[in-house]
Amino acid sequence: HIGFHICPQNIISFYRLIQSFPAVKLHLTGAVMRATEVEFDKAKEHLKTLKNDPGNDTKLRIYALFKQATQGSCSSPKPGMLDFVNKAKWEAWNSLGNISKEDARQKYVDLVGTLISSEAPIQKEATTAGDPKSSYQTLQVTTENNITTILLNRPEKKNAISRKMYEEIMQALEQAGKDDSVLTVMTGSGDYYCSGNDLSNFTQVGAEGVEKLARDSGELLTRYVSHFIDFPKPLIAVVNGPAVGIAVTGLGLFDVVYATDRATFHAPFSQLGQSPEGCSSYTFPKMMGTAKANEILLFNKKLTAAQACDLGLVTEVFPDNTFQQEVWKKLRAYAKLPKDSLRYSKQLIRGMEKEKLHAVNAQECVRLQERWLSEECMNAIMSFFQNKSKL
Ligand SMILES: CCCCCC/C=C/C(=O)SCCNC(=O)CCNC(=O)[C@H](O)C(C)(C)COP(=O)(O)OP(=O)(O)OC[C@H]1O[C@@H](n2cnc3c(N)ncnc32)[C@H](O)[C@@H]1OP(=O)(O)O
Questions:
Q1: Given the CA of residue 197, which atom of ligand 1 is nearest to it?
Q2: Which UniProt keywords apply (predicted)?
Q3: Thinking of the domain 139-389, which architecture would CATH place it in?
Q4: How remote is the CA of residue 233 from the centroid of ligand 1, in Å?
Q5: Model's pTM, two decimal places?
Q6: Pocket, ligand 1, Cβ cutoff 6 A
Q7: Could you state, in order of their start, the residue ranges of all structural domains in the chain?
Q8: How is domain 37-119 classified at the architecture level of CATH?
Q9: Most buried one in 109, 178, 193, 363, CB count within 10 A?
Q10: CA 106 to chain centre
């Protein structure tokens, strides 16, 4: 017995205690938050939503990881024999030895993730009435056979991503990250996978002018891309047709990309007076070499599915007439694999890169905010709407 009383009120005071540490306040008010710190903060918030008491051992582990992540190794003197609670906390913290702050932060995030997902309701059926998933306007989100599918659903606009759709995709990713499914799939409805950013996002200039629009767009894009960087389980793109702009660049943040042989991949940034996003200025050169990436990101080279596969952007290409059948057969088999093993393996594969990716995302969005205000970009957007100059 360690002196904690296990009741909901005590869980709440435990969180308050954790929140009240000066180190956390300092960390929260820091002007620049590092990527995993953002994730760490999210985990702290998620922790507050736990409905069940995780038990004293787990609470001590959470406490210890929190201290190690924010203050480093335990160096305070051991509390006296009769100071049960503080002694147990000290022992838990001290038992972490010299593990780094970053490792502790990751372990904290993983532990909270496991606790939260163990409470998630079991999803047995595809979308049902009253399910928040059925309230999306631009997406159709379903969970079936352990697979949550996010269907981009504006086929009449070639699934161009409107502001509403950016928000809904983020919301759907948050849900999918927490639900009981094993895999998350993104695909498009109709003949396109996605024609990228909806160019009318740049024509809705409010009273505060274009600078405000550019700032808001930069903020939206940063959040959007962060959701892919931080997505905790395997994320698969089923590219059912042509992909443009951010729908191409973001593919570097997916874990597997299956494409129909009808798909093309086009990131026409210089043609639009813009610059790369979705972390592609980092993921593309890393994946295919700088020279090949330059043809795509600087010189607007449109790739066929086979070329994209040769360059490593696409995992496998299927003939269009058997695409859906072959891909879903594979996915259904993958979705039978153990969920946590997949989740942890993905986190190991991606974990080391996360901070870098967040930094790249931030840098790309700063550059884009400047680009969106440029004459080059404004002319390209006007030209699309006035002359319908297509790519
Ligand atoms: C909040 C800001 C975040 C910014 C993130 C940065 C992201 C950057 C990018 O993604 S850059 C790429 C932007 N995309 C484009 O430039 C594509 C523009 N579209 C086209 O060139 C063509 O529409 C096409 C080649 C994709 C398809 O041509 P086609 O098959 O001939 O179809 P239509 O042109 O008739 O299209 C049907 C319908 O959809 C509308 N539409 C298609 N794509 C977009 C788009 N990206 N933005 C807005 N609207 C789009 C098109 O206008 C038609 O509408 P209509 O029927 O005329 O009302």
A1: 10
A2: Isomerase, Peroxisome
A3: Alpha-Beta Complex (3.90)
A4: 30
A5: 0.71
A6: 157-158, 160, 195-201, 217, 220-221, 244-246, 272, 277, 384, 390-391
A7: 37-119, 139-389
A8: Up-down Bundle (1.20)
A9: 193
A10: 16
